[in-house]
Amino acid sequence: MAHSFGLILPNRAVVLGTVTPRDLVDLTVEAERSRAFDAVWVGDSLLAKPRLESVTLLSALAGVTAKVRLAVGCMATFIHRHPVMLAHQWASLDVLSGGRAWLAVCLGGPSEASAAQAAEHAVMGVTSAERVGRLEEGIVVLRKLFHEKNVSHHGRFYAFDGVTVEPAPVQNPCPIWIASNPTGLTWKGGASASEAVVERSFRRVARLADGWMTNKLSPDEFRAQFARIQAMAREEGRDPATLGSALYHNLNINEDRRRALEESKTFLDTYYTANFSAKFVEQWTVAGSPTECVEELRAYVAAGVGHMALRLTSWDQRGQFKRFLAEVAPAFGGRG
Description:
By secondary structure, the protein is of the alpha/beta class. It contains 12 helices and 11 strands. Helix 11 (290-302) crosses helix 12.
C-alpha cells in the first residue's frame, strides 16, 4: 500500500526561543536530501499560538527545495483570511515551488478554548459560530479562483464580481484538504464532539475536500472513520478512491518508552501552553525504541493511512531526526 512520510517543522519554537529560523531551513534541506520525506509541514496560528507565519515560511522553503511538498496543517487562520487574498498568496506559492503547495484547512479553536483564541477571533472580526460557514464558503471560493477567470461569488460572508487571480496555480486541481478530528480525545481526556457534529464534520470532508487529515486516533479508529468518510463521498457522487488521507502525529525515539512519552509531554505542554493528560499524549505519539516505533507506524500504514506527518517531540530536533533516518526510515524504504 502506498504511503509517505512528512516532517513537521516546529515553527512555533522560533517564538519560544528553542530553535532558529535557520534550523528550520536546514532541517528542510536535510529532509529533502534524505529522500525519507515526501513533504514538510508547518503549523498556523495568529495570536493564540504565535509562530512564524505559515505561507511566508513555506515560500522561503520553496527557494531551498526542489521536490518535497510544502504543506500547512492545519491552517487554523483559514477562517480569518479573505479567500481572494489567500488565493493570490497560495497560487503564488504553488508557482514559486513548481506545483508543490499542499493546503490543509481547519476550523481553528472555538473562542471557549482560551482567552487568546477568543482574542484572535475578535481582532479578526470573526465569531466562533461563523467558523463552519466561513470554512465551507472559503473552500468554494478558493476552488473557483484557482481555476476560473472572471469569477463572481455572492455568499453569506464574501461577495464579488469579475475577479481573476493571476498567476494561476501550477497544480490543477490545487489540493485543498480538511483537517479534523471530531471523535478524538480532548486534552483533558473526554470525547470532543456529539454524534451530530461528527456526522457533519465527516460529511464536510466527503463533500468538499481532496483529502482528510486527522490526529490522535488509533489505527483501528482511523480505519473505521476513514471508511465512513469514503462511504459518504460515494453518496456525494464522488469516487472515494480519489480521497487522500493523512495523520498528523508525534514521534519520540527512546529505548525507554516511558521517558519518550515524558519528554513528549514536556515538549507538547510547552509548545501549546497546556497541561495535556498522559493518555492524550500517548494516543498522539509513536514512542519507544526504533523497533517499537516501526511497529506502531506499520500499524497505521496497514490501517490505510496514506501519509504520516511526524513531529519530533523533543527539543533535540536534529538528534531525533538523525535517529529516525538511521533506525526507523529504512524499515519503510527510506535511506538508512
